[in-house]
Amino acid sequence: MERRHFLMGAAATAATPLIASPLQALAQTGAASSSSASQSRTAEGYQRDEILRAGSDFLGVTVEALGGAIEKIFSDYGDRPTAYIAGEEVSGAIAVGLRYGKGLVHMKALPSPEKIFWRGPSVGFDTGGNASRVFSLVYGLYDVEKIYQRFPGVDGSAYFIGGLGVNYQRSDDTIVAPIRAGVGFRLGANIGYLAYSKSRKWFPA
């Protein structure tokens, strides 16, 4: 009986490395995958110089003029936006206004930029209309499909820096920070919302 227990114990001891080795390999693979996914997400972001170059070229302003607005956004939400939108919009208001725009959403994971449209109501104390260029930084967007939804404005987030207007919009963990350049541009949208879509829609909801 003792000999039988001895043999079983020896067999279990010998088998332990055989069991542990695949488990360790599996754990190491999982850790590597997690690290790789984390690095991949970090790699998907745009660096400061890329944003400054793309933004200044599109908005037609100097890097210095755009730099102040970019630094403010970076200080609030980080220096690695995962996407950006470059487009144009028209808007008008008499206390209550409407805003319509179109452009391209850029992500490093996309083979090419995708068309995007937006529209929405706004409430403010301004009156008038305008056409402006919009360069929006997007944070927390890893799947382009998730941009096509409604983004409420963040109250009190509107400000002017270097002749550019900036405000924030947020839905769950995704943040959009539009930078507007244009004569008579309005910031009332920070009290309303913008709805983004793949095709043009005229109804603001």
UniProtKB/TrEMBL annotation:
Keyword flag Signal: yes
Signal peptide: 1-27
Pfam families to which the protein is assigned, alphabetical: EipA (PF06577)
Cell inner membrane among keywords: no
InterPro entries associated with the record: EipA-like, TAT_signal
Keywords of this entry: Signal
Domain of life: Bacteria
This protein's name: DUF1134 domain-containing protein
Source species of the chain: Asticcacaulis currens
